[in-house]
Automatic annotation (TrEMBL):
<keyword id="KW-0328">Glycosyltransferase</keyword>
<keyword id="KW-0539">Nucleus</keyword>
<dbReference type="InterPro" id="IPR013785">
    <property type="entry name" value="Aldolase_TIM"/>
</dbReference>
<keyword id="KW-0202">Cytokine</keyword>
<protein>
    <recommendedName>
        <fullName>Nicotinamide phosphoribosyltransferase</fullName>
        <ecNumber>2.4.2.12</ecNumber>
    </recommendedName>
</protein>
<feature type="domain" description="Nicotinamide phosphoribosyltransferase N-terminal">
    <location>
        <begin position="7"/>
        <end position="106"/>
    </location>
</feature>
<comment type="pathway">
    <text>Cofactor biosynthesis; NAD(+) biosynthesis; nicotinamide D-ribonucleotide from 5-phospho-alpha-D-ribose 1-diphosphate and nicotinamide: step 1/1.</text>
</comment>
<dbReference type="GO" id="GO:0009435">
    <property type="term" value="P:NAD+ biosynthetic process"/>
</dbReference>
<dbReference type="GO" id="GO:0032922">
    <property type="term" value="P:circadian regulation of gene expression"/>
</dbReference>
<keyword id="KW-0090">Biological rhythms</keyword>
<feature type="domain" description="Nicotinate/nicotinamide phosphoribosyltransferase">
    <location>
        <begin position="178"/>
        <end position="433"/>
    </location>
</feature>
<dbReference type="GO" id="GO:0005737">
    <property type="term" value="C:cytoplasm"/>
</dbReference>
<dbReference type="GO" id="GO:0005634">
    <property type="term" value="C:nucleus"/>
</dbReference>
<dbReference type="Pfam" id="PF18127">
    <property type="entry name" value="NAMPT_N"/>
</dbReference>
<dbReference type="InterPro" id="IPR036068">
    <property type="entry name" value="Nicotinate_pribotase-like_C"/>
</dbReference>
<comment type="subunit">
    <text>Homodimer.</text>
</comment>
<dbReference type="InterPro" id="IPR041525">
    <property type="entry name" value="N/Namide_PRibTrfase"/>
</dbReference>
């Protein structure tokens, strides 16, 4: 059931209040679709579909129209437009005919599915001819799915980069699902952004400090605990000891958390001195007493991340030694590792991993954290998300409709009723003008007349989104294996 205090009548752009007067007379059907358009030079060639189930459960499911909400909207729009443009009678008719449930149908691809950009992801149409205007009335709210789709897609791109380097420098993918930690809670615009963005990252990884995302995965995607964290220091817990007692601060943390992994930010003053003289000096024996299950994770937090990580690794190697793994790359002892959370984005992580490899270090030595670059430094245009009308019915006759602006051909829209299928070569393609075969359509009805008809668990979504072989061989080609070889899934990658 949608939240009781949410008023769907107020959850749209102002100008849509007047659109019921703008469609052709005797219109009975409006059919629209959502896609992530592709343009020449776009980096991300495919997207991960995620987040629709949350929007449906949170805002559209069940009876969502009441007389009280109609009256609230009537007064609001009278004040807002300074004239009576709100269609009170149509909303009351919806309340009477459908018990306040929205007479619309939404078909969508399965959540977690990898879809090449430029294809339909979901469609919306009215199921009652009296409410043709409702299809695009809900556009405003539904298009906000751009956010979870974009976060999930970028998170998966991180995973592809990490997987490729981890495989090349360690010979395995062990621990991949913990290689990127979500540090983005404080950097987003709202609690809902944190919840939705945090849950989007959890489609690909199991490592997070964004509690809101975990709660959303519990409530809306049936996952009791989707991600994990470890005890970790912040600057306040270190500098509160005073500059001259940094060693005591570190030692106290080792005492407080004798078992289990422990992360300690170590650059409050001088990361290199801290690693050389405290961790690798005065506290060396204490560090060596720990093991793989209770390893110390040192966190740099400033400076050039590429150069800083290499220098820290070299200092720790001098103090604790290193071994060479099965594919010839250096590895610190199992009781000590590094996490880099400052300055991490899709570009810098690639530079760091390339530098590690060129210097002979395995990617096993370093985990990463990412904040605003994962959850906040994106917008609807990152993946060119768009919602467009493609089919209408007037006086019982159907008509394929489209836009085709002469000034920007890339904004041309699709025509007619749409379906999504795999063609004879195995690639996904959108079939336009109602020419698709129902038995081939990947789109399935997930919402109809106020009811959610198909739900996905986070486990199912993770399986749909997990990496394939070609993702590791070439992380920039997100079309190949997901669309052409869906069966070549890497076992164990969640």
């Amino acid at each position: 059931m949608a939240a009781k205090d949410f008023n769907i009548l107020l959850a749209t752009d102002s100008y849509k209040i007047t659109h019921y007067k703008q469609y052709p007379p005797n219109i009975s059907k409006v059919y629209s679709y959502f896609e992530c358009r592709i343009r020449e030079g776009d980096r991300f060639k495919a997207v991960v579909f995620f987040g629709l189930q949350y929007l449906l459960k949170k805002y559209l499911a069940g009876p969502v129209v009441t007389e009280e909400k109609i009256q609230q909207a009537k007064l609001f729009y009278l004040l807002h437009f300074k004239q009576a443009v709100f269609d009170e009678e149509r909303w009351r008719l919806l309340l009477e005919k459908h018990d306040g449930r929205l007479p619309i149908r939404i078909k969508a691809v399965p959540e977690g599915m990898i879809v090449p950009r430029g294809n339909v992801l979901f469609t919306v149409e009215n199921t009652d001819p009296d409410f043709y205007w409702l299809t695009n009335y809900v556009e405003t709210m539904l298009v906000q799915i751009w956010y979870p789709i974009t976060v999930t897609t970028i998170s998966r791109e991180f995973k592809k980069i990490l997987a490729r380097h981890l495989k090349e420098t360690s010979g395995s993918l062990d621990g991949l699902e913990y290689k990127l930690h979500d540090f983005g809670y404080r950097g987003v615009s709202s609690q809902e952004s944190a919840a939705l963005g945090g849950a989007s990252h959890l489609v690909n990884f199991c490592s997070t400090d964004t509690v809101a995302g975990l709660l959303m995965a519990q409530q809306y995607y049936s996952c009791p605990m989707a991600g994990f964290s470890i005890p970790a220091a912040e600057h306040s817990t270190i500098i509160s000891w005073g500059r001259n007692r940094e060693k005591e601060a570190f030692e106290y943390l080792l005492e407080q958390f004798p078992s289990g992994p422990l992360s300690v930010v170590s650059d409050s003053y001088d990361i290199f001195k801290a690693c050389r003289h405290i961790w690798g000096g005065k506290l060396k024996e204490r560090v060596m007493e720990r093991n793989e299950d209770s390893r110390l994770v040192i966190r740099p937090d400033s400076g050039d991340p590429v150069e800083t990580i290499i220098e820290v690794l070299n200092i720790l190697e001098d103090a604790f030694g290193s071994t060479v793994n099965s594919v010839g790359y250096k590895l610190l002892p199992s009781y000590i590792r590094i996490i880099q959370g400052d300055g991490i984005d899709i570009n810098s992580i690639e530079k760091i991993l390339k530098k590690l490899k060129s210097e002979g270090w395995s990617a096993e030595n370093v985990n990463f954290g990412c904040g605003s670059a994962l959850l906040q430094k994106i917008n609807r245009d990152t993946l060119n998300c768009a919602f467009k009308c493609s089919y209408v019915e007037t006086e019982g006759k159907g008509m394929d409709v489209y836009k085709q602006p002469v000034t920007d051909p890339s904004k041309g829209s699709k025509r007619g009723r749409l379906s999504l299928r795999r063609n004879s070569d195995g690639y996904m393609e959108t079939v336009e003008k109602g020419n698709g075969k129902p038995e081939e359509d990947i789109l399935t009805t997930v919402f109809e007349n106020g009811s959610i008809l198909h739900e996905f668990t986070l486990d199912e979504i993770r399986k749909n989104a997990r990496l394939r072989e070609d993702d590791i061989q070439d992380h920039q080609n997100s079309l190949n294996v997901d669309t052409l070889y869906p069966e070549r899934i890497l076992n164990g990658l969640h």
